[in-house]
Specification:
Elements lengths: L4 H10 L7 E2 H8 L5 H10 L10 E2 L12 H13 L4
Parallel strand pairs: 1-2
Helix pairs in contact: 1-2, 1-3, 2-3
The protein binds a DNA duplex through helix 1, helix 2, helix 3 and strand 2.
Amino acid sequence: MDTSFKQRVLTIVKKIPQGQTMTYGQVAALAGNSKASRAVGMILSKNFDPAIPCHRVVKANGDVGGYNRGRENKLKMLQNEKIVSLT
DNA sequence: CGTATGACGTGCA
DNA sequence: GTGCACGCCATAC
């Protein structure tokens, strides 16, 4: 385990509540560097841990950004938990 | 240490 | 609203 920036980002993303989304810059800011938005994206891209809801991380302009399993899958998940807020 | 890469952010025309 | 360019940071070699 490396107590590095990536570890911090992963922990934050992991804490993102369902139905909620955060921007890379926001996660980066919480990680310690509000300018490390790119680094955040790279880290998530290299991380394939299913325990990390990286699909809840979007770009600052509201774009879905990307996903290690395909943008389509990300959009689907967001639509599944973000849109569908019904029990 | 220097270079290259990448799921970004912001500014300007 | 759209397109382009620059900056910023972390990781890998």
